[in-house]
Amino acid sequence: MRVIEIGIILVILLVIFGVILTSVENTSEKVISEVEANNMEKLVSEVVDNLINNPGVPDNWNEYGKGTPGLAIVNDGGKTVPNSVSYAKLTALGNDYKKLVYERLLSSKVHTSIELIPQESSISSVKIGENKIGEEIFSLTRIVKCDFYKSYVLKDFQNEGKCNKHHPQDEYSCNYFKIFKGNVKKSDYYLLIDDSATYDLKYIVDTTRVVKAKPWKTSISDTIYLNNEIEFYDDTSAIVFVHLDNPDAKAVLVSVPKNFNKEFLNYDYFRTNECQLIFKAWY
User: Fold this and answer.
1) Is the dihedral of CA 86, 91, 96, 97 positive or negative?
2) Integer CA distances (angstroms), 242 to 66, 251, 265, in order
3) Quick one: residue 52, left, alpha or beta (phi over 0 = left, psi -120 to 50 = alpha)?
């Protein structure tokens, strides 16, 4: 009888020991997972904050494909814009994502993707990086300033310009740029207007050498092609003036390459926007 009791006790002890061992293993796995998640969160947060606050070294690294990547915008004054993303740099990062992000920034430890979602509905989101194949355990979102094709902007009519017709800036928006005959063979020039101003805004395109005064034209489109409106006369260059009959016109003058995708000729693509940057990471 005592043998049977001892056997039962041993079985019970084995069951208890097994339960304890399983519990310890589960706890250890949970602790390890939490440590890994915390390490990933710290690593990803540091990488993201560095990318959006650092233009890279050199700050035009994207033009050469060499150097240390950064996404921050450098403004016209040469200063870094904090919490910003340059579309040109984001595209360059996507072109060599494995080398620049997975290997260089994350030391081949974490798989990631980056999505830039503009707040303006007229602009499509952009996603770069790896396709998700593992279990996602971390996602980080930042609100950033983003430019898309702002580098092609010659003049922004919401900034004070110069006028050759004595138009007061509190009643009109005027701006100008210099152009050579060879420029129109390589580039297209456009006046891009916000949708809300179409049909309400009038404009004049002239030069410093005006043979005949030009009348005001109504903007019947948000995309106005200017190449055919520029007069060189017998000169090789011209100073072109564009006048708008609104003191705070939402419009920009742009110069884009001949092969530029016309689908992106939209005012919102050529100004600074607010975007969501979503950085996803997994093992």
Assistant:
1) positive
2) 39, 11, 18
3) alpha
The secondary structure of the chain in percent helix, strand, coil, rounded to multiples of 5, reads 35, 30, 35
Which residues fall within 8 angstroms of residue 5, CB to CB, at 6 or more apart?
none
pLDDT in tens, 267-282: 999 988 999 999 998 8
Output the CA torsion 153→155→222→213 (10° steps).
-140
User: Across the chain, what does the average pLDDT equal?
Assistant: 84
How many Å apart are CA 112 and CA 248, to the nearest integer? Answer: 42
Q: Residue for token digits 């002890």?
A: 13
pTM comes to: 0.77
Residue in this structure with the two tokens 């589960």, named with its chain if needed: 26
Residues 98-119: b if buried by 16+ CB within 10 A, e if exposed: eebbbeebbeeebbbbbbbebe
DSSP string, 29-97: HHHHHHHHHHHHHHHHHHHHHHHHH--EESTTHHHHT-SEE---EE-TTS-EESSEEEHHHHHHHHHTH
Amino acid identity at 241:
F
Sign of the dihedral through C-alpha 266, 267, 268, 273: positive
Which residues are CB-contacts of 219 (< 8 A; sequence separation ≥ 6)? Answer: 191, 193, 197, 198, 199, 200, 201, 202, 203
Q: 187-235, pLDDT tens digit by residue?
A: 999 999 998 888 889 999 988 776 677 888 998 899 999 998 888 888 8
Cβ 202 vs Cβ 216: under 8 Å = yes
CA pair distance 44, 42, nearest whole angstrom: 6
